[in-house]
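Tutorial, part two.
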Amino acid sequence: MISSEMDKTSIIQGGRHTDERGSIRFVNSFKFKDVKRFYIIEHPKNIVRAWQGHKIEIKYFYVISGSFLVCRVKIDEWQNPSHDLPVDEFVLSEVDSQILKIPGGYANGFKALEDNSKMLVFSNSDLEESKQDDYRFDKNMWHDWENK
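Running the prediction step on this input gives:
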């Protein structure tokens, strides 16, 4: 089976330009074609939001301020997933100007690594579609958040 670009986790690299007027962060190669909504997450350092998964929905994560540890797990069985699934970790920071794309088929979780961290999340599903494709798992199921 050949996977499409929609099925791949990826980092979309951006950049930053600074001059005497200030700075601009950008991710010019990010296309909003399939984005239906966005929201901003802000919470204190070390608070964990995990695990939320979607079979279909694609999420794009962009850090506005501070930094976040974002993790993903490829789900093997949605009603009763294995407890030993491998976890992929990504550290996203306002300094790097990157967008992390997590396709459907994964659960994700994250925590702020600094106080006053904010993350912008884009989705290819509207709210009703997302609610129909929402799976929640215990935050400690796959990852030791306290020691990361």
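The radius of gyration is 16 Å. In part three we will examine how such features are distributed along the chain.
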